[in-house]
Amino acid sequence: MLSSQSKLTSDRKSLLKCFALLDKPQRAMLLAFAEFLVARNEALPASSQAVERTPVLPKKIARPRKETVIGAIKRLSETYYMLDRSELLTEASSLMSAHIMHGREAVEVIDDLEALFATYYQQHQSDSTP
């Protein structure tokens, strides 16, 4: 029987090696970013079918007092469920990078994320109007 280490691909081995070299806060940031990427991947449309353009209202989900950037992206994705997230999440990932890689405050990034999602919603609404 093969050991679990020998079953790992070179990418996974490299990732584990990098992870081991990081301190605890950096590991937490790496995990947060990985979770963000997974959420982004799950949010992309499964097919290239046309997005329904029927005007719909966003869900009302209150912003928690203490919220992470990843939590905000999940909340806003659920709030604005009607949006095509492929372009939106590209911009959201840039904001996420500003937080993780450059130390930008989470509150500021979340404010920008809310504005970004609202802008895309307004565009969606104007595109849906005949």
Overall outline: elongated
Radius of gyration: 18 Å
Q: How many strands? A: 0
Succession of helices and strands: HHHHH
Regions with little confidence, pLDDT below 50 for 5+ residues: 1-5, 47-54
Which class of secondary structure composition applies to the elements?
Answer: mainly alpha
Oligomer: single chain
- Biggest sheet layout: none
The domain tally reads 1
Task: Please state roughly what percent of the residues sit in beta strands, choosing from under 5%, 5-15%, 15-25%, 25-35%, 35-45% or over 45%.
Answer: under 5%
Count of helices? Answer: 5
Share of helix, binned: 55-70%
End-to-end C-alpha gap: 63 Å
pLDDT average, as an integer?
A: 81
Give an account of the 3D structure.
It is a single chain. This protein has 130 residues and is an all-alpha fold. It has one domain (14-43, 58-128). 63% of the residues lie in helices and 0% in strands. It contains 5 helices and no strands. The chain starts with 9 loop residues before the first helix and ends with a helix.
Attribute tags:
single chain; 130 residues; mainly alpha; 5 helices; disordered N terminus
List the helices and strands and how they pair.
Layout: H1 10-21, H2 24-43, H3 69-79, H4 85-100, H5 106-128
Helix pairs in contact: 2-3, 2-4, 3-4, 3-5, 4-5
Summarize the structure.
With 130 residues, this protein is mainly alpha-helical. Helices cover 63% and strands 0% of the residues. The protein is elongated and about 55 Å long.
